[in-house]
Design a protein that fits this description.
Elements lengths: L6 H8 L5 H24 L22 H13 L5 E6 L10 H4 L4 E9 L10 E9 L7 H4 L8 E7 L3 E6 L4 E7 L4 E6 L10 E3 L10 H12 L10 E2 L5 H11 L2 E4 L10 E2 H14 L3 E3 L16 E2 L1 E4 L1 H17 L1
Helix pairs in contact: 2-3, 6-9
The chain binds 2,5-anhydro-1,6-di-O-phosphono-D-mannitol (AHM) and magnesium ion.
Magnesium ion binds next to β2.
Length: about 325
């Protein structure tokens, strides 16, 4: 690629307005966290990071699992700007405790999943970091201050630690993707204005849950599997990486639909609203796609807890609308 723009220049040129200065500073910290996490992941088993928390290395030191290491890297880096008043992490039960001094000037809330898909780490398959930034109602946020609708997000993004490391971002004005140049340790714009294809013949779902799904999801998948011989009159392909970041990235690049519905064994779904579903829905909508629980636009769901779970169907708008329509048929029949 000829002279791609680096992410710092891109952000200073493209992120302006009310939150511009703050976002530039906070994103600088998030980007540096993601670069450090990429290094920790790259080191793999050589760094002794793959063990569970209870295990010890040969020196008798307790080994830290990579998702805890990633969480610590993210928290430390995100505090640098002094603009974050509160944080919620998949790895921490309550909002992350910030020192009194740190949150005095904070005006923003940062939600994040430091290492999504971490069950893939030990088998060397792609994982990611997901984050979302909200305005904080005050600089001493209470639990209720975190429970904002996804429509309130001012920025969301992810890092994908895949065959190359990428950083994908929206601030509500389209979606842009950057690739890490390992020689200079800089992200460069390689995927400007990412758009989800209007048509697709590819779906992503964990098929092993088929018997637990509700009827609308079974119907949608049955029709995909019937292919040319069924109502859809076209054959479908399937992918399942078990890493939402990799899945959504593939959909941004070559189309498709991703589903993690609720089912009879996980009544609320598996994925978390505030730091998985919401940021990814914001990105997907900004790329021309859609995201639903089946019954409601994800970005309009009022969270009932910082770790609330939610059914997720996202990607190609037409397919997501079809899935939502199948849920409508079911709820009318009740
Ligand atoms: P995690 O946050 O504990 O890693 O779980 C989220 C991940 C998603 O990235 C992925 O879509 C899903 O779990 C895979 O679940 P399953 O193993 O049930 O297929
Ligand atoms: Mg996760």
């Amino acid at each position: 690629m000829k002279n791609p723009i680096n992410i710092t220049e891109f952000l200073s040129q493209h992120i302006q307005g009310e939150h511009g200065v703050a976002l530039n500073a906070m994103l600088g910290d998030v980007i540096s966290a993601c670069k450090k996490i990429a290094v920790a992941i790259d080191a793999g088993a050589l760094a002794g990071n793959m063990g569970s928390l209870a295990s010890e290395n040969v020196q008798g030191e307790v080994q830290k699992a990579l998702d805890v290491i990633s969480n610590d890297i993210f928290v430390e880096a995100a505090l640098q700007s002094g603009l974050v008043a509160g944080m919620v992490s998949e790895e921490v039960d309550a909002p992350v405790a910030l020192a009194e001094k740190t949150r005095q000037h904070g005006q923003y809330l940062l939600m994040f999943d430091p290492l999504d898909g971490s069950s893939n780490v030990n088998v060397n398959i792609s994982v990611g970091t997901i984050f979302s930034i909200l305005k904080s109602p005050n600089n001493q946020p209470e639990l209720a201050d975190f429970l904002q609708l996804g429509t309130e997000q001012i920025c969301a993004g992810y890092a994908l630690y895949g065959t190359s490391t990428m950083f994908v971002l929206t601030t509500g004005n389209g979606v842009n993707g950057f690739t890490l140049d390992v020689k200079t340790n800089e992200f460069y714009l390689t995927h400007p204005n990412m758009r989800i294809a209007a048509e697709t013949q590819e779906f992503a779902i964990n098929m092993s849950n088929y018997r637990f799904w509700n009827e609308p999801i079974q119907r949608y998948i049955d029709e995909c599997l019937q292919g040319e011989e069924g109502d859809r009159k076209k054959d479908f392909n399937m992918r399942w990486v078990a890493s939402m970041v990799a899945e959504v990235h593939r959909i941004l690049v070559r189309g498709g639909v991703f589903m993690y519905p609720s089912d009879s064994k996980s009544k609320s779904g598996k994925l978390r609203l505030m730091y998985e579903a919401n940021p990814m829905s914001f990105i997907v909508e900004q790329a021309g796609g859609a995201a639903t629980t089946g019954l409601q636009r994800i970005l309009e769901v009022k969270p009932n807890g910082i770790h609330a779970r939610i059914p997720v169907m996202m990607g190609c708008k037409k397919e997501v609308e079809r899935i939502a329509a199948y849920h409508q048929v079911k709820s009318k029949r009740k």
